[in-house]
Design a protein that fits this description.
2 helices; Lipocalin; mainly beta; 11 strands; 194 residues; eight-stranded antiparallel barrel
Length: 194
């Protein structure tokens, strides 16, 4: 009898993570209500821009963080700014080199709660030909069965990703730190109907 119980327990331990993964909600980004912006510092003044096109493969449930995973894909050619002078420059080989590297990708399956409705996601960010660890901090602004909204940010070192080469690798004029802010509004894709 003990042997049967142990076998049952073993099978249960194996199957529980699979059940948990299957039940993790899948979310679809609502582009018109989502944003991805960045702020750099040039000559002591903030310089801002945004990426207008990005998609996500999001599996997230605040109640089962170990089963969550996300993949965000950013169209680097969708970069814009108020005057389009900055964005045109940033597409060039010395910066994002969008002809050769049209996409930036963030992947994560590591989440932890750090406060009331506040979380951290540790993952890998690929820009150009560099992939480095990045930690996102975000707050759950809204979360229901059908809709969710988060707001968050992170800071990256542009030179670590090879962004700004040649004379632009010097961080005297354009600082190394770049802040990224994001708002993601999403709707749940796999809601089961009673």
């Amino acid at each position: 009898m003990n042997l049967y119980f142990l076998k049952f327990l073993y099978i249960l331990i194996i199957l529980l993570p699979l059940t948990s993964m299957a039940d993790t909600p899948t979310w679809q980004i609502v582009p018109s209500k989502s944003s991805l912006t960045f702020t750099a510092t040039q000559n002591g003044a903030p310089v801002t821009g945004q990426f207008e096109s990005f998609t996500g493969d999001i599996h997230f449930d605040p109640n089962q963080l170990s089963a969550n995973n996300i993949k965000i894909v950013i169209d680097m050619n969708s970069i814009t700014d108020s005057y389009n002078q900055l964005s045109d420059t940033l597409k060039t080989p010395a910066w994002f080199n969008t002809k050769l590297f049209p996409l930036a990708i963030f992947k994560s399956n590591e989440f932890k709660k750090i406060g009331d409705k506040t979380y951290q996601s540790k993952g890998m960010l690929t820009i150009r030909d560099k992939t480095l660890p990045v930690i996102l901090t975000f707050t759950q602004e809204d979360y229901t069965q059908n809709e969710a909204m988060i707001k968050g940010s992170t800071i990256i070192k542009r030179t670590a990703f090879g962004v700004g080469q040649g004379e632009w690798a010097d961080t005297t004029i354009i600082k190394d730190d770049v802040q990224i802010n994001f708002t993601i509004k999403a709707i749940r894709k796999n809601v089961s109907n009673p």
